[in-house]
Design goal:
Elements (H helix, E strand, L loop, with lengths): L7 H8 L10 H14 L7 H12 L4 H9 L1 H7 L14 H16 L4 H28 L8 H12 L2 H6 L1 E9 L2 E8 L7 H14 L1 H5 L6 E11 L2 E5 L15 H25 L6 E2 L7
Parallel strand pairs: 4-5
Antiparallel strand pairs: 1-2, 1-3, 3-4
Helix pairs in contact: 2-3, 2-4, 2-12, 3-12, 6-7
Length: 295
C-alpha cells in the first residue's frame, strides 16, 4: 500500500520538534483559556503575554503545570496576589517551580492547617519576589541588546538588497525568542534545518557582550515562541508560514477556542516580527501574508 503524504506531526518530528509537544486539544485550550484570561487576567491582544503563555501550553513538559494551576485555582489565588501573577510568565520554569513549592509544603504539612498555609505563602511569596528581581535585572542588562543581532541583521540587509527576481528565489526563516520582556528576532537561511541553532547563536552573542560569569548571575531562559518565513513575492516582502518546532499545533483548529487562539497567535507573531523589522529597517516595506490556522 502506497503511503499517503506526511502529516504535520510527522513533518514536525522530522524537523526536530520535541515528541512531548503534541497537538493541543480543545479541552487543553479550554484549560489554557481559564489560566490565561481568568487566572492571569490577560488580554488577547497582549503580544508578549499571549505568545509566552502559548509556549507554556505548547511545550509538553510545561503543559501539566498550566492544568494544575486551573485544577487548584482556588489555592493558587489564595497564595499569589493578582499583581504577582504576571510573574508566572517571567521565565518558562516559574510555573513549575511554584507548583513544586506548593505541593512540597502540602506533602510535609498537609493541605490544611495554619502552619501549612503560612509556610506555603512565605515560600511562594519569597520565590516570586526573587523572580521579579531576576526579571528586572535581566531586562536592565538587555536594554541595549538589539532585537536583531548583528550577524542576523547582515543576512537581512543582504536579502533586502537583492533584486526582485533574486528575492523571489530566496527565502529566509525567522524565529521569535524572548528572554523576560526582551524580544529577539532570529534569521536563518531557509535551507537551514536547525531552527534551534538560533538560540545557541543568541547565547554566544550574549556571552561575547557580557561574559559567561555575568550571564551565570542571571536566569537565562529562552521563550522560543514561534517562527515562519520571510520571502519576496509579487514585488513584496512577505512574512508567513510557521515553525514546525516552535509554533503550537492544534488537534482540530476548527473548534472554537482552538480557532480563536490559533488565529490570534499567528496574528500577534507576525505583527511582532513586522514591528521589529520595521524598527531596524524603517524604509523597508514588509507585509503579512494571508495565514491559515496551525492545524
Amino acid at each position: 500500500m502506497h503511503p499517503g503524504p506526511p502529516t504535520t506531526e510527522m513533518l514536525a518530528v522530522t524537523e526536530g520538534r520535541c515528541p512531548l509537544d503534541t497537538p493541543l486539544t480543545e479541552e487543553e485550550m479550554n484549560i489554557f483559556d481559564t489560566f490565561y484570561r481568568d487566572f492571569l487576567g490577560k488580554r488577547m491582544e497582549d503580544k508578549l503575554s499571549l505568545l509566552k503563555g502559548m509556549l507554556l501550553v505548547r511545550r509538553g513538559d510545561l503543559r501539566p503545570y498550566v492544568r494544575y494551576t486551573v485544577l487548584f485555582q482556588g489555592r493558587y489565588e489564595d497564595l499569589i496576589p493578582v499583581k504577582q501573577r504576571d510573574l508566572l510568565l517571567s521565565f518558562p520554569s516559574v510555573n513549575k517551580e511554584v507548583y513544586n513549592l506548593i505541593f512540597s509544603c502540602a506533602q510535609n504539612y498537609g493541605m490544611a492547617g495554619q502552619t501549612a498555609v503560612l509556610l506555603t505563602q512565605d515560600q511562594v511569596g519569597e520565590h516570586l519576589d526573587r523572580t521579579e528581581m531576576f526579571r528586572i535585572d535581566l531586562d536592565s542588562m538587555l536594554i541595549n541588546v538589539p532585537s536583531i543581532i548583528p550577524e542576523h541583521k547582515q543576512v537581512l540587509e543582504e536579502f533586502f538588497s537583492l533584486s526582485e527576481s533574486e528575492k523571489f528565489e530566496k527565502t529566509l526563516k525567522f524565529t521569535l525568542v524572548m528572554m523576560a520582556d526582551h524580544v529577539l528576532l532570529g534569521i536563518l537561511p531557509s535551507a537551514d534545518k536547525g531552527s534551534t541553532t538560533t538560540i545557541g547563536q543568541f547565547r554566544e552573542y550574549l556571552e561575547r557582550q557580557f561574559g559567561t560569569a555575568k550571564l551565570e548571575e542571571n536566569i537565562i531562559e529562552f521563550f522560543a515562541v514561534g517562527g515562519g518565513y520571510i520571502r519576496g513575492e509579487d514585488n513584496k516582502i512577505l512574512l508567513g508560514g510557521r515553525s514546525l518546532i516552535f509554533d503550537p499545533l492544534f488537534a482540530d483548529s476548527t473548534k472554537p477556542l482552538s480557532q480563536l487562539y490559533s488565529a490570534q497567535f499567528s496574528q500577534l507573531k507576525f505583527q511582532l516580527a513586522q514591528q521589529i523589522i520595521r524598527a531596524e529597517f524603517p524604509t523597508q516595506e514588509v507585509e503579512i501574508a494571508n495565514v491559515k490556522p496551525n492545524a
